[in-house]
Design brief:
The chain has a single domain (5-92), classed as Rossmann fold (3-Layer(aba) Sandwich). It has three helices and three strands. The protein has helices at residues 16-27, 41-47, 49-73, and strands at residues 5-7, 30-32, 82-84. The radius of gyration is 15 Å and the shape is elongated.
């Protein structure tokens, strides 16, 4: 099965979610948004970045993988393509000085 999959990626607050939402509405695409608010490591990371940076990134990666696996396995035949506000491997693209 071939997926038509577009990713909007950028810095925090750059407007990724807004742009992905507008594109999905305009072109009837399936929208996938990153679910970062529910990550239990996020508050811990803000308290102690050096200790929790790596577990936080691993948990984000696992959550992204699970979300994509579930949503892409149930492709909506009425949607032309899928658009997401994150790239699954984005943790590999950014430098995090907290992770040593």
């Amino acid at each position: 099965m071939i997926y038509n999959y577009i990713v909007i990626e950028g810095n925090i607050g750059a407007g990724k979610t807004s742009l992905a939402t507008k594109i999905s509405e305009q072109y009837q695409a399936q929208l996938i948004l990153e679910q970062f608010e529910e990550n239990s490591f996020l508050p811990k990371f803000y308290q102690d970045p050096e200790k929790y940076a790596f577990p936080l990134e691993l948990s984000f990666l696992a959550e992204r993988y699970q979300q994509l696996k579930e949503l892409l396995s149930k492709k909506d035949i009425f949607k032309k393509f899928v658009i997401a506000d994150y790239f699954i491997d984005k943790s590999l693209m950014i430098e995090m000085p907290e992770i040593q």
